[in-house]
Write a structure and sequence with these properties.
CATH architecture of the largest domain: Up-down Bundle
Helix content: over 70%
CATH superfamily of the largest domain: MFS general substrate transporter like domains
Keywords: Cell membrane, Membrane, Transmembrane, Transmembrane helix, Transport
InterPro entries: EmrB-like, MFS, MFS_dom, MFS_trans_sf
CATH topology of the largest domain: Growth Hormone, Chain: A
Structural class: mainly alpha
Subcellular location: Cell membrane
Number of helices: 18
Pfam families: MFS_1 (PF07690)
GO molecular function: transmembrane transporter activity
CATH class of the largest domain: Mainly Alpha
Order of helices and strands: HHHHHHHHHHHHHHHHHH
């Protein structure tokens, strides 16, 4: 933390005092957005019971939040250029806080889903441009540590979300899961107005058609992934796939021919950026498969209770909390691809160890493997994000930030769909539960291996560039 506030002659970014305040704003935004998923997720059975709806219907309280966010992130990243990231971030915070009040007061599931959809827009506005603001706030020499701080904040939210949700439900009703956003959000808005760097928006014409095509294409893709393992909705998969492909093809055509595109495709000509994007996709796919598979392994195969399963899973986010700041510091001193590759190697080893656990492992065996996964993922993530954000000019940082957020969301969505496909028995109806869950973990490890190969290949690319 002390290094992040240091100042050297010639530093870009904000002065140290304003830097710490702006950093607190961005951390608050990430904390609220991620906590809101994990704390509400654990309350779904309670909400379903009190609103008198089915468990399947209540899942849309989570799904619509993620769906709207995934479909709108690229749009918000481009909108940040048009109206200024200062206005967009604060506007997203205000919308998030207002819809928290609306969610707490929702009289029915239908209204709750509507308000959660709007809340997803507020979350996407913050998350899509948050990483790009770190480039404005911090000097380039500290960008890796700043990215590590982002990963640390998200890990805290992931680790604390279920505990916070359980604690609130033990003393109050479910609407308080939304009420608690209000004081934190109001304080963050007040601080954001004072501390975030102000920017003037551009006067160019916003690509409305590109935004619509992007939202339809990405939204249809996410819904299609959710429908793959649901036999009752399997007939919609070809239609959704066709809509997604057609919309995204139209989006690409639009970006090539519009004067001020929503997503400048030229950024993918930068090899370092493109390879960091692909590495990020496969790593988040692997993490998502593990996150979803492990509760089934712990409870259905090894016989642990839900509370015990939560305890066994805790070393993962704790490992990220250690690895992310460390990876960020190392990435500012050494080659980020090398640090990322080391982290992915540890992550892959941890996934392989979890897949080999068997039916009756000791608690220590589970804990150290879970911690190794988290340590490796944290060590990888901050350097890779630094490479993604730092490989492009600052003028393109908003686009890079939107791509970063979108790739994370879609990697997680694809991972969830693959696990659902395996667990539903579509791939092999003869498998027992132990083999099925192990297969999902091995698939996650294979995805981590692809990420490792992509990350390691960047070392050769970087050497060739330096030689030239």
């Amino acid at each position: 933390m002390k290094a992040l506030l240091s100042w050297r002659e010639g530093d870009d970014g904000l002065p140290p005092r304003q830097r710490i305040l702006a950093m607190m704003v961005l951390m608050s935004g990430s904390l609220m957005a991620v906590l809101n998923i994990n704390s509400v997720n654990i309350a779904l059975p309670t909400i379903a019971r009190e609103l008198g709806v089915s468990s399947a219907a209540s899942v849309w309280i989570i799904n619509v939040y993620q769906l709207v966010g995934a479909a709108s992130m690229l749009t918000f990243a481009a909108l940040g250029y048009r109206i200024g990231r200062y206005r967009l971030y604060i506007g997203g915070m205000i919308l998030f806080v207002l819809t928290s009040v609306m969610c707490a007061l929702a009289p029915s599931l239908g209204w709750l889903i509507v308000f959660r959809a709007i809340q997803g827009l507020g979350s996407a506005a913050m998350m899509s441009i948050g990483p790009s603001m770190y480039r404005v706030i911090f000097p380039t020499r500290l960008l890796g540590q700043a990215m590590g701080l982002t990963a640390l904040t998200v890990s805290l939210a992931v680790a604390g979300g279920p505990a916070l949700g359980g604690l609130v439900l033990s003393v109050a009703s479910w609407p308080w899961l939304f009420w608690i956003n209000v004081p934190l959000g109001v304080a963050a808005i007040w601080l954001a107005i004072r501390a975030l760097p102000q920017e003037q928006g551009s006067r160019y014409r916003f690509d409305v058609l590109g935004a619509v095509l992007s939202a339809v294409g990405l939204g249809a893709f996410v819904i299609m992934l959710d429908s793959i393992a649901d036999m009752s909705r399997s007939g919609t998969v070809p239609v959704l796939l066709a809509v997604s492909v057609a919309s995204l093809a139209g989006f690409i055509w639009r970006q090539r021919h519009f004067e001020n595109p929503l997503l400048p495709l030229v950024i993918f000509r930068e090899t370092r950026f493109s390879m960091a994007v692909m590495t990020s996709f496969f790593s988040f796919l692997a993490q998502s498969m593990a996150f979803i598979s492990l509760p089934f392994l712990f409870q259905n195969v090894q016989g642990y209770t839900p509370l015990e399963s939560a305890f066994l899973f805790t070393p993962w986010p704790l490992g990220v909390m250690i690895g992310a700041p460390l990876g960020g510091r190392l990435a500012d001193r050494f080659s980020p691809p090398i640090i990322s590759s080391i982290g992915l190697l540890l992550f892959m080893a941890g996934l392989g160890g979890l897949a080999l656990l068997g039916d009756q492992p000791t608690t220590i065996d589970i804990l150290w493997r879970s911690a190794l996964c988290g340590l490796g993922f944290g060590l990888y993530q901050a350097p890779n994000n630094r490479e993604m954000m730092g490989s492009l000019p600052k003028a393109r940082s908003g686009s890079a930030s939107g791509v970063l957020a979108s790739v994370r969301t879609f990697g997680q969505s694809v991972g969830a769909a693959l696990v659902a496909l395996v667990l539903s028995g579509i791939m092999n109806a003869t498998m027992d539960s132990a083999v099925t869950v192990s297969l999902a973990l091995w698939m996650g490890m294979a995805s981590a291996l692809v990420a490792l190969i992509l990350s390691a290949s960047r070392i050769c690319v970087l050497k060739r560039q330096q030689t030239c």
